[in-house]
Amino acid sequence: MNDLLTIEQLGRSGIERILDRADEFGGIAAREVQKVPALRGKLVINLFYEASTRTTSSFELAAKRLSADVISVRSSGSSVEKGESFKDTVATLDAYDPAAIVLRHPRAGAAALMTRWTNAAVVNAGDGAHAHPTQALLDAQTLRSHFGSLDGRVIWIVGDVAHSRVARSTATALNLLGARVVLCAPPTLMPPMIGMALGCETTHSLDGLEEADAVYALRMQHERMRGGDIPSLAEYARCYRIGLERMRPGQVLMHPGPVNRGVEVTGAAVDSPASLITRQVSAGVAVRMAVLYELVAGSELATPRAAEVAA
Ligand code: NCD
């Protein structure tokens, strides 16, 4: 594998291979020295054109725990603000000869485009509303550690499906691992045919939520809305907000973060023992270590890029 652009490219066996390795790396967190030398001397660059707390910090930590050098570049405060193009920014960073570039970008397809301009392994850390494969892997890892296996588990993903790259990637990963995924959103936040495209059931109501083993709430993605998608946040919350009163005992709650408390989920639910949200964050480090390890240390197994073959 040269790059990680989508979850689909991994298939069930690829996902399981990465999660198994993440389990091994998870053990490192318990050691006194939380580092392995696997990527010593290699450079990992985080290039973020959109806001991020969890994804950027966990990629940084993952790279450091693998002993790589790390540079994190955010578009705000960089030469992007002076008008530098995406291509020129990538060319500049590529001059440092990185082993991997982790990219978050507001445009769908940006990570795939970047593979044309660099020989570094490209990791898609979110491209528009398209894909967020490492979030899907850490979600799968969190559920797998909680339930043991996802086969036959029922997961409801509730909220702004239309603008969510997490919904697309996580639903796909959970399906591939044998879960049954139900997408629940108001009609205006559920793209037509998405259920068929992702192999999920869809519904516009929380009726039946009790069948879920896990309830996955999505953030309202205001930054991608053009206005008019919902009557009001209060009306949305009345019909779709996940609170303890809507959950049955034994169900677990997940959310990719950042949470809008009181909108898609209540603060009480986030802070309750049913919540796996902080476990998702910790799983993110081991999963991203496994991804960087596979792409960089495992690159002897990778197939050469067209650019390399031509060279
Ligand atoms: C998600 C994202 O950026 O797509 N956040 C994340 O990576 N933890 C979800 C979101 O922003 O709502």
In short:
The chain contains eleven helices and nine strands.
Fold and architecture overview:
By secondary structure, the chain is of the alpha/beta class. The protein has two domains: 11-132 and 283-301, Aspartate/ornithine carbamoyltransferase (Rossmann fold, 3-Layer(aba) Sandwich), CATH 3.40.50; 133-280, Aspartate/ornithine carbamoyltransferase (Rossmann fold), CATH 3.40.50.1370. Helices cover 36% and strands 14% of the residues. The chain has eleven helices and nine strands. The strands form two sheets. The chain has a five-stranded parallel β-sheet with strand order 7-6-5-8-9. Strands 2-1-3-4 form a four-stranded parallel β-sheet. Helix 5 (133-147) packs across helix 6. The longest helix is centred in the last third of the chain and has 20 residues, at 277-296. The relative contact order is 0.16. The chain binds N-carbamoyl-L-aspartate. Residues 54-55, 126, 132, 135, 165-166, 219, 221, 256-257 line the site of N-carbamoyl-L-aspartate (NCD). The site of N-carbamoyl-L-aspartate has 11 residues, from helix 2 and helix 6.
